[in-house]
Amino acid sequence: MKVxxxxxxxxxxxxxxxxxxxxxxxxxxRDRGLHPVAVISAMGRxxxxxxxxxxxxxxxxxxxxxxxxxxxxLMSCGEIISTVAMAHLLRSKGxxxxxxxxxxxxxxxxxxxxxxxxxxLEPTPLLRALQDGSIVFVAxxxxxxxxxQITTLGAGGSDYTAVALTHVIEETPRLPFGEELDVxxxxxxKGVDGIMTANPDSVDGETSGQPQTIxxxxxxxxxxxxxxxxxxxxxxxAQMARKYKIPIVVxxxxxxxxxxxxxxxxxxxxxxxxxAAIVDQKNLLVFDLDSDNxxxxxxIAERLDRERLTYYQVGAEQARFRFAVRxxxxxxxxxxxxxxxxxxxxxxxxxxxxxALVSVVGEALRQRLDAWAERAERVLTxxxxxxxxxxxxxxxxxxxxxxxxxMQAVSCLHRSLVL
Length: 419
Hints:
This protein is an alpha/beta fold. The protein contains 12 helices and 19 strands. The strands form 4 sheets. Strands 1, 2, 3, 6, 9, 10, 11, 12 and 13 form a 9-stranded mixed β-sheet that branches. Helix 2 crosses helix 3 (68-92), helix 7 (219-227) packs antiparallel against helix 8 and helix 9 crosses helix 10 (330-344). The longest helix has 25 residues, at 68-92.
């Protein structure tokens, strides 16, 4: 039996017309002799009735603070609704289907509500459904703890679900009743053509050139882009795919013949002088701690990591410890920093402002970061963009700029370093 895991993002199931197109992709897989396991996200985005944002707003209108356990219980409903709807749609077309919540499909997580990590998988019910000939539907973004509490896997968590299920199926040589089992390349369906060289909404196409679909990415490029804010894969999913060498194809669900992006071990650096992509994060808030106490910065960083709060540490001459966070988590980070400072009796000024992080990513940067930094910084300074902080990793360079200059920075870097 050959199984294919197919993940459908929220835009793929946000309307009846789009659900029919998503169903077509599943039926095509069945026509090729494959047994689909479809991982489904919540329907659409903000403004649509069953999206996660709208579900949460129904209780936040009562009071903004919600118990984390109950918030996860509520947020899991969006994926369950869309999963049952898709399973019912395929059944109405004559296919046998079985729908599972994340927990029913065997995803066991830790008890960290809102950002849970998968600790193991118990897929026997899912495998039995495959053995019985069903097309399997799994609600993404969620799992169960050992004590049967519902948890969610963080923003983009349906990617995490899909990668985890692909891995466990790949590690299962036979179905419960003895049939040999094989798994195909994981398919991630979105409303766009694969992964782009830049966010189309962040560039001026007339001056920077239109973003192009990236044909192939290495695992390291995928992880770096996810960490720095690109809507490629959830970072946890990208890391798991890299760890277990799970090949992935990212496709447009509306057009099976459109360009696509492949992520995996087959993608190799071709030795050219172009970066893979420019990634941007908008509307960041910045913390400046004017202290030369290295233990203080380490303590804050360790606490943020423990709380699974995303932050970007950026070096700057005018601040000994500077880092940026997304607005959604600003108050959580602020509470942590203030408690640590109060316990130490350390005075520090915390500033915030409208900043953005613009990053250059690609295998071409590996072991040549200084040369690439010189090129990137020359591009920015030539158009008068002030750099307020920098960060680097093995294959990425990041620059903190004012939000008002973000699109210009992306456009210039995209034209000069990618196209």
